[in-house]
Specification:
- The longest helix has 45 residues.
- The chain is rod-shaped.
- The protein contains two helices and no strands.
- α1 runs antiparallel to α2.
């Protein structure tokens, strides 16, 4: 029974580590998109264009990234928990 339980913990750990890698990639890409959108917003403002929608998009991108980073923190916590379970069994 302990062997099956250990295998289950180990599989969950592998899965969470893969999710962590994906979260890191997604967050980095999100920051890249946000920087691009901020650059575009700055250009639009300098050119005298209406920027209401661009400003909203920048705000939404920032909020999304905050949530993604919170989710990443939960994944990190889950990985730490699973690492403890795997090493203790």
């Amino acid at each position: 029974m302990a062997s099956a339980e250990h295998a289950n913990w180990a599989e969950q750990l592998r899965s969470e580590r893969a999710l962590l890698v994906k979260a890191d990639v997604d967050i980095e890409e999100g920051w890249r998109r946000l920087r691009g959108q901020q650059d575009l917003l700055d250009w639009l403002q300098r050119a005298g264009h209406d920027t209401v929608q661009a400003e909203r998009l920048v705000g939404l991108l920032k909020q999304t990234l905050i949530e993604w980073e919170r989710h990443r923190t939960l994944i990190v916590q889950r990985v730490a928990y699973l690492e403890e379970r795997v090493t203790s069994h």
